[in-house]
Every structure is written in structure tokens, then in C-alpha cells.
Amino acid sequence: MSWILLGATLAFGTLHILADYQGRWVLTYIYKPMTLVAIVGLVLVAGAPDDLYRWGVLGGLLLSLVGDVFLMLRPARFIPGLCAFLLAHLAYVAAFASRIDMLAWPPAVAAILAGAGMLALLWPGLGRLRWPVTLYVAAIAAMVATSVSAATAMPDPGRLAAAAGAALFLGSDACLGYARFRRRFPAAQGLILGSYYCAQALIALSAGALYA
Questions:
Q1: What is the C-alpha to C-alpha distance for residues 57 and 113, in angstroms, rounded to an integer?
Q2: Which of 5, 29, 98, 175 could pair with 52 as two cysteines, CB 3.0-4.6 Å apart?
Q3: What is the longest distance spanned by two Cα atoms in the chain?
């Protein structure tokens, strides 16, 4: 079943990216939420959530779906979308933190530096959104720090998948921020969405097929 859902994620995600490039917004409204629904299925295929980790990941995915809906509207509802994704990151932080006793400081410092670098890159173009985006970037850095700390403590496939997903999420958001607040470039949508869907699928697998 997981392979079927991964195939659906790949198919719907690809169709969404193509629809965006072609400006076919009706198809975007269909394929974007369907991609996240398939990813949610990767969690549920292992059964109903039964602990904080799986509930946190499921909550993060559902909040991401809400954020996706806000951001795909024309015009996009950026602030509501940002808030939904902020809550999604906090749900992921709660999930990843449930698997650690303390942060592993080398990856935590690396995550903080990556977040600071991302914020410095975006800062000149943020205007009145500087403090909301700062809070959002802090949540992303915390998500990466906790996920990598969990993988460092016990490097099993699920934890490694979650850490890779969190890192990809940061990369996707950095690309999104650069395209929105600094300079748009032709490959932006493909890079943003491709890394975003991979990130979410890896996190979902950590609470589904790779859960331990």
C-alpha cells in the first residue's frame, strides 16, 4: 500500500508542478491537495496514530494541507498560509522532541546557523513581514534541530528519513522565500514543490512504513 501511495504522491505532485507552470489553476486546485492527501495516507497505512510522534506528524501534515490551500488561492492568502505552516512546524517539533532527551548540539548549532543564513538572505526584501518570517524561520530551525538530534541518538531508517525530510523542508522554504522576497527565477516552482513534496513524504514515512 505504501508503494501505491508513493506512486500517487509522485503522480499528483508532478501534475501539480506542470499545472502551475502552465497557469492551469483549476488543475492546481485539484492536484495540490490530492498530493498531500496521498502523503497523509502514508501515515495512516500503519494504522491509527497511537503516540505523540505519530499524532504530531499527522497534525503537521494536516496543518500543511490547510497552508497549501491558503497559498494556492488566487490571490494567495500568504499570512494565513504562513500561520498554518508555522503550526505545522511546531507539531513536527513536538513529534521529533518526543524522541530525544536533549538536543545534539553540533546539528542544533548547524540548524540555527542555516536558519540565520536563510533569514539574512531574505531580510532586505521582507519589509513589514520581517518578524512573522523570523518566527517562522525559528520554527523551521527547531524542526531540523530536533529531527537531526533524534536521528543522531538512534539512526534507524525512520529517524533518518525524518531528518532528511526536515532538512529538505528548510531548503524548500529557503527557495520559496528567495523567489518571493528577492528574485523569481524559472526553476523556482519545480525546486520548491519537488523538495517540499519529498520532505513531507519522508516525514510521513517516518510515522508510517518506517515507523519504529
A1: 25
A2: 98
A3: 48
